[in-house]
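Following the same procedure, backbone shapes were mapped to integers, as reproduced here:
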Amino acid sequence: QVQLVESGGGLVQAGGSLRLSCLASRNVFSISTMGWYRQAPGKQRELVATITRGGSTNYADSVKGRFTISRDNAKNTVYLQMNSLKPEDTAVYYCNADRPLSGSSLLYWGQGTQVTVSS
């Protein structure tokens, strides 16, 4: 089975930094675009950042210049370095794997990790 396990969430003051990690199953990680999504209270889940197997990245406008997504393919781990955190970054952050499947894709999700930014 595919399992994505997030870690690194916590409480931080505005302006601070936090690094999230997501460990994934090797067979999925090796061929998947990985991503981070977040869901704030009362809001829909939204894209934060994605990274392809080859390292191409994409970011939501709200986090550009502050967050950096990266992956270590040898460790089957994707990271989200979050700097200059704002209270509006408070959310549950979810790791995602987008696996190609016959021209389409199959999505997997972690359980999420809470990030709280105090003002």
Remarks:
- The first strand starts at residue 4 and ends at 7.
- Residues 26-29 form the longest helix (4 residues).
- The mean pLDDT is 95.
